[in-house]
Amino acid sequence: MSDRFATRLLKWFDAHGRHDLPWQHPRTPYRVWLSEIMLQQTQVSVVTGYFRRFVDALPDLPALAAAPRDQVLALWSGLGYYARARNLHAAAQRCVELHDGDLPRDFDALLALPGIGRSTAGAILAQAWGDRFAILDGNVKRLLARYHGIEGWPGTPAVEKRMWALAISHLPHKRLADYTQAQMDLGATLCTRSNPDCAHCPLHADCIASSTNRTSSLPTPRPNKARPERETHVVWLEDKTGLVLMQRRPPTGVWASLWSLPQFDDVDARDQWLDRQGRTASSTELESIEHVFTHFRLHLHPLRARLATSKARVGDNDHHRWIARSELVTLGIPAPIRRLLETKP
């Protein structure tokens, strides 16, 4: 069965797979690693533009390691899941320290780097060097669940353990880079989460989900859990000259280390802080913004205010920065805050 699985998948890939992705030309360990981190939780169509901009600015691992944190976060700004960018930066610095500025060609050494798990390590080794390692990302979990008719949410240890065993059993002995890409491509284009195109799937003949009409129920979805609701207040504060006050977020928690607007738990705390900054010429409550995270839903309530002077109690320091709107692109800023700041005056 495993021979048919890999053979059919590779034959399909040769005719229908994606062969022109930017990280494939050239396919270096650094570019493969960067693409794998960017592709976590993010679609290829979104990643390609970010990838090109990132490697144009930071073309290799030593350049990434030497880059200021703000530059890395600015290049990542808009991709979300910013822990990926922080881990990427930290891992590059560790590679300079421990591996002579190269990504190690060793599974355990890769796994020890920040932000690299078992599947990502396998994807790097398989695609960068053609080593025989399996992956188990969301696309592969969906393929295996349907092909083998596996019941149970893939996030549970028992189901995941079974899927790893099957993923390893299907590995071919050559063309590992193509095979790894083929699995991701099939999951992204044919064996999609909804409305899979089974008629054109190369694995259709042996797929249990297809033959038993269970493609809509496999893989078993994550058990429903109510997403908590949170609220916060932010102040878009400008001085008389139009400079915007940005505040760096704490090093842990939501939007860690990014630059955002001053944020408050309630209106009283917001207003008391604003009163301390000096006399305001104007202030306007803006429409609330809803932003959905993996584990909760955030309701942002922005207040836009302009000082009557060019001075405020808060000056430039490690945690605050007055910056022209034209220069906001140089900072790593959460996507909803960036969209807010890009609205017309």
Rg on CA atoms, Å: 24 Å
Terminal Cα span? 62 Å
Kindly name the structural category: alpha+beta
User: Percent of residues in beta strands?
Assistant: 5-15%
**Outline type:** elongated
Average pLDDT for all residues: 93
What can be said about the biggest beta sheet?
5 strands, mixed
Q: Helix-strand pattern, N to C?
A: HHHHHHHHHHHHEEEEHEEEEH
Count the E strands: 8
DSSP summary: helix tally: 14
Outline the low-pLDDT stretches.
Answer: none
Helix content: 40-55%
List the SSEs and their pairings:
Blueprint: H1 2-16, H2 29-39, H3 44-57, H4 61-66, H5 69-76, H6 83-98, H7 107-111, H8 118-129, H9 138-148, H10 157-169, H11 176-189, H12 208-211, E1 229-238, E2 244-248, E3 259-260, E4 263-264, H13 267-276, E5 280-285, E6 289-292, E7 297-307, E8 320-323, H14 335-341
What would you say this structure looks like, in words?
With 345 residues, this protein is α+β, with helices and mostly antiparallel strands. Helices cover 42% and strands 13% of the residues. It has helices at 2-16, 29-39, 44-57, 61-66, 69-76, 83-98, 107-111, 118-129, 138-148, 157-169, 176-189, 208-211, 267-276, 335-341; strands at residues 229-238, 244-248, 259-260, 263-264, 280-285, 289-292, 297-307, 320-323. Strands 1, 4, 5, 6 and 7 form a 5-stranded mixed β-sheet that branches. The protein has a 3-stranded antiparallel β-sheet with strand order 3-2-8, with no helix packed on it. Helix 2 crosses helix 3 (44-57), helix 9 (138-148) packs across helix 10 and helix 9 (138-148) crosses helix 11 (176-189). It is elongated, with a radius of gyration of 24 Å. It starts with a helix and ends with a helix. The mean pLDDT is 93.
